[in-house]
Design goal:
Blueprint (H helix, E strand, L loop, with lengths): L1 E5 L5 E4 L3 E5 L17 E9 L4 E7 L3 E8 L2 E5 L4 E4 L3 E6 L4 E7 L6 E8 L9 E6 L9 E6 L7 E2 L5 E7 L3 E6 L5 E9 L2 E3 L2 E3 L4 E5 L3 E6 L3 E9 L3
Parallel strand pairs: 13-14
Antiparallel strand pairs: 1-20, 2-3, 3-4, 4-11, 5-10, 6-9, 6-11, 7-8, 7-10, 9-12, 13-15, 15-22, 16-21, 17-20, 17-22, 18-19, 18-21
Length: 237
């Protein structure tokens, strides 16, 4: 098993006033040549958007975009005609394909919204843009990892144009568990949203991450009151 450790403190940090952003990989004005992507995972942004503000209309193409609000709700509008509220406990998936425009705003006027936004390189170029939004609450299982995204339309959760899987784990007690990778030669980027865990000899605390590859399974010792996101992606694509 091979690993790469990214502590929370080594991420890129940008403060735009209305937006406080933490970048696991090179993004916007922050560039680290050793942190450009992890396989097909291009972006993992941990964002805090001030009350009543947000991202104005902007374009994307040929990227799989996943948004997970952690605290609060976002309003969304796009050039495909969708107007929606992405609530805490939802996951939104956009396959940008041939190109879209969208905007995201903090719905609250009195408090910030916290969210994760991830971009993955697709395995098909120039597909017709698509939009999906589901409730993670309906999939939740305590003290184990549960799937929220896959390459398969028939599976639990949403789906994308990539041989990638995402799982969440919500742990209310100390737990020993393991994760079987979705595909040989994939790697897993492990991001601790809350709490802490031990993988091999590495301890991860809040907002730390660990990339793992060259193994079919990963064993976890997870501490009480922890939440962990697993991003299982091709390393070559």
């Amino acid at each position: 098993m091979k690993t790469v450790y990214h502590s929370a403190a080594t991420r890129g940090h940008q403060d735009h006033g209305w937006l406080k952003a933490n970048h696991s990989f090179s993004f916007a004005n922050w560039h680290n040549p050793e942190r450009v992507h992890f396989g097909a995972l291009r972006v993992l942004n941990d964002d805090y958007i001030a009350a009543g503000t947000g991202f104005g209309t902007h374009p994307h193409d040929n990227m799989e975009i996943i948004t997970i609000p952690l605290v609060g709700d976002l309003t969304h509008q796009d050039s495909m005609g969708h107007s929606a509220v992405i609530c805490e406990g939802d996951i939104q998936v956009i396959s940008a394909g041939t190109g879209i425009y969208h905007s995201e705003q903090n719905k609250r006027q009195d408090s910030q919204v916290e969210l994760l936004q991830l971009w993955l390189f697709p395995n098909e170029q120039n597909v017709s843009p698509r939009y999906d939004q589901i409730s993670i609450r309906d999939l939740k299982k305590e003290n184990t990892f549960y799937q929220i995204l896959s390459p398969n339309k028939e599976d639990e959760g949403s789906w994308i144009y990539q041989d990638a899987w995402m799982c969440l784990g919500d742990f209310t007690q100390e737990t020993k568990t393991s994760y079987l990778l979705g595909k040989p030669n994939n790697g897993v980027y492990i991001f601790v949203i809350e709490g802490s865990a031990q993988i091999g000899g590495q301890t991860l605390s809040k907002k730390d991450a660990l990339g793992v590859w060259d193994t079919p399974t990963i064993d976890f010792n997870v501490d009480k009151d922890s939440r962990i996101l697993l991003i299982d992606v091709p390393l070559k694509f």
